[in-house]
């Protein structure tokens, strides 16, 4: 894995932590510039994740003899165990301390849909969120994996177009015909395609440049993000995210050899999954004991960081290896030590 990409994954995960801190503790009401950036712009961490996902999946499958079935098995083995673990943790928390999660419910059909990455209303007529709230992004991720697995049947040079066609049919035509939930018509899905395009550029060696150019790209992207515009999310945040990703990839020589950044990237998925229950419990304790929100934030950051480290090493890695053996597949394309 490129260390620059690992660093971005970590940054994106912690940006989302900041967004949810502002949501839970301040209801998005910002009192200073940092709070404003977290509350109003921190959600771009998801967009960076999606661009990186398309980038990494394309590169990890290039020149590999992967069948759609084998690809999906490995993606399920990598994504599902940790997600299920933290969803089950949410079930336990909601059942034992419902006052901490007053808006959650444990109807069997809703829980099952949450576990199976099926978009379903958290309450009738309300937003589409699974029990573990951040799982809404994984609904998109799993859809992308499923569609990209079909694209693996095509030659590498055609996979972008196959994936784009399938995304258009499923995410735009499907909802219009009532065949697919309107949840998937979000233009954020286009960011996966941006990642694939970046992967194609990288494969062709077009991501090398003098340092000043990618640095300028990052400055331009951050400026565009800060000022914003009344345009679709894929343009407002997706394009700047793609520029940031490709710029950081071009700066890879400056990131190489950093074990710390690699570790942060390795733990980013667990950070993403674990932070919501930690912040929710932290908010409840802060209200109960009248603790300063920022003092509680420091406690939550420590708990999230330590918990994510343990989760990566003893939950993600162990279950991934165990499932590989159980499924009888050897994954040389999509592992934490992969080339790309």
UniProtKB/TrEMBL annotation:
Q: Which principal EC class is assigned to this enzyme?
A: transferase
Q: Which InterPro entries match?
A: Acyl_transf_3_dom, Acyltransferase_3
Q: Where is the Acyltransferase domain?
A: 4-307
An MF annotation (GO) of this entry: acyltransferase activity
Question: What Enzyme Commission number(s) apply to this enzyme?
Answer: 2.3.-.-
Top-rank taxon of the source lineage equals Bacteria
Membrane-traversing stretches: 7-26, 42-62, 83-101, 131-153, 160-177, 183-202, 211-229, 235-255, 267-288, 294-315
For the keyword Transmembrane helix, the answer is yes
Q: Check the record and name the Pfam families matching this protein.
A: Acyl_transf_3 (PF01757)
Q: Which UniProt keywords apply?
A: Acyltransferase, Membrane, Transferase, Transmembrane, Transmembrane helix
Keyword Transferase appears in the UniProt entry: yes
PANTHER family the UniProt entry points to: ACETYLTRANSFERASE (PTHR23028), BLR2367 PROTEIN (PTHR23028:SF131)
This chain belongs to which protein, by name? Acyltransferase
Species, as recorded: Pseudomonas khavaziana
